[in-house]
Design goal:
The complex is a heterodimer of chains A (181) and B (126).
Chain A (H helix, E strand, L loop, with lengths): L2 H4 L14 H12 L26 E6 L2 E2 L23 E4 L6 E2 L21 H9 L5 E2 L2 E4 L6 H18 L4 E5 L2
Parallel strand pairs in A: 1-5, 1-6, 1-7
Antiparallel strand pairs in A: 2-4, 3-6
Chain B lengths: L1 H9 L4 E5 L2 H7 L3 E4 L14 H17 L5 E4 L22 H28 L1
Parallel strand pairs in B: 1-2, 2-3
Classes of the chains: A alpha/beta (181), B mainly alpha (126).
Chain lengths: 181, 126
């Protein structure tokens, strides 16, 4: 039993806190023998833009890192091992009026404790449609957009971010929900 | 994804990120962040649990409306499990045997070669 629980303080277990992913991943690759650690993006300044109209009148975009299922690209789950063959390297878009089969086998999700059996856990288009039907948001933008999970920050910023902005502007969106997997 | 949120926001489009990797998203620095303390892959709620998916979206929408400045993080009140020991497992090298580490090294090299092949293919198609 956790010592603090015995003390009656009601503390959670010592490990019951957000997983320190950067430390875990750094230690992991160093031990595997890949010396130069991944450099995660970090910025001192963070931009901020307020909503200009109520959400109930806003057009909201969805951006995902999931990939369209490609039958010729090997096992993509549920429960598939990491599959780099299912990766994509260019921004893509899809019609939000129809359903999509998007997968996350190309992403390092937690394969021990989850199986990627329900795409609603990484692609909340159905939930957004329900929110629109209730009037919580004005509407779902006509397209959702897929963002590549590129390890090059330069490509992400110069190419992918610019493309995502252009597509969101073309769709006249008022706000965007981004869901990495 | 954090970079995309920053870019949209800097160009006048308000954003919210729904994600499970708190340290990585906050390190990048994003305007609004709905954090679910779930295994990676469940940014938008629990599997086969529509109520949790709706709540997760609602919390994110609430952030879009209520955040008054950047780096606003809210943690979802939902728990993956009562027992939090699942958090000890992800990429935890301390829990792996030398055999397991060797197996993973070989698999990593293999996947890297596959990804390299796709990138070359994409460039050829440009």
């Amino acid at each position: 039993m956790d010592e603090n629980k015995r003390d009656g303080l009601g503390f959670a277990a010592e490990y019951d806190r957000p997983i320190p992913y950067m430390q875990r991943i750094r230690d992991y690759y160093v031990t595997l023998g890949y010396g130069a650690p991944y450099r995660w993006a970090n910025y001192a300044e963070v931009p901020f833009t307020k909503l200009t109209k109520p959400l109930s009148k806003s057009r909201v975009a969805l951006i995902t890192t999931a990939a369209p299922y490609q039958p010729d690209k090997g096992d993509q789950g549920p429960g598939a091992a990491y599959n780099a063959g299912a990766k994509f390297y260019k921004v893509y878009s899809g019609d939000t009026a129809v359903d999509h089969d998007l997968r996350i086998s190309h992403i390092g999700y937690d394969r021990l404790h989850t199986t990627a059996e329900d795409s609603n856990t990484w692609f909340p288009l159905p939930a957004m449609r329900r929110a629109a039907a209730k009037g919580r948001i004005g509407e779902v933008a006509p397209r959702f957009h897929g963002a590549p999970t590129n390890r090059s920050h330069v490509t992400t910023i110069d190419v992918d971010c610019a493309e995502l902005l252009a597509r969101c502007r073309a769709d006249n969106v008022d706000a965007a929900i981004l869901v990495p997997s | 994804m954090s970079l995309a949120a920053r870019h949209l926001e800097a160009n006048g489009i308000p954003t919210v990120i729904m994600a499970c990797a708190k340290d990585i998203v906050e390190f990048a620095g994003v305007p609004r962040f709905l954090f679910s303390d779930f295994p990676l892959g469940n940014s938008a709620g629990k599997p086969k649990d529509v109520a949790s998916q709706d709540l997760t979206l609602e919390l994110a929408l609430g952030l879009l409306e209520s955040a008054t400045g950047p780096r606003t993080t809210m943690q979802s009140p939902l728990r993956w499990k009562d027992d939090a020991s699942w958090k000890l497992d992800f990429s935890n090298i301390e829990k792996m045997s030398p055999e397991e580490i060797a197996r993973r090294r070989a698999e990593f090299d293999r996947q890297k070669e596959i990804a390299k092949g796709i990138r070359k293919g994409d460039k050829a198609a440009d």
